[in-house]
Amino acid sequence: MAASRNDLGQRLLEIKRALEEKKSKRSELQGEHKGVMKQLKQEFGVDSLEDAERRIREEEQELQKMEEEIRAQIYEVEELMEEGE
Hints:
The chain has about 80 residues and is mainly alpha-helical. It has two helices and no strands. It has two domains: about 1-45; about 45-85. About 95% of the residues lie in helices and about 0% in strands.
């Protein structure tokens, strides 16, 4: 019976240690999350991940438009160069 209590006590101590480690890790991750959210706000003016994702989509669309415009301009330059030859 005493060995059983010791085993139980040891197991409870292990569970307590594991729980404390998880709480510590959780606090660390919460701090990192807070830092990332602050950086998003400062650098990009967004308050949430949803806002950041929306901003990314908007920027990607703008980039795609710019690429299309550049391609069209390159085509025009190539056409002008062929006419001059």
